[in-house]
Amino acid sequence: MNTRRHWLILCAIVVLIGGVQWAGEIREPTASPHKKSRARTPAASVTPVPDSATPQAAPKSDETTASKTRDDVSPEKPEHAPAATLDPSDLAEFAAQPPRVQALIASALELTKLNLTYTYGSADPARGGMDCSGTIFYVLNLQGFKDVPRDSSGQYEWARRAGPFFAVVSRRADSFEFADLKPGDLMFWTGTYGVARDIPITHVMLYLGTEKKSKKRVMFGASDGRSYNGIQRWGVSVFDFKMPKTETESPVREKATFVGYSRIPTLRDAVTSVPEPVRPSTPAESLPKESAKTEKQSGSGSKSGDSKKGKTSR
Question: Is the pTM of this model over 0.70?
Answer without folding.
Answer: no
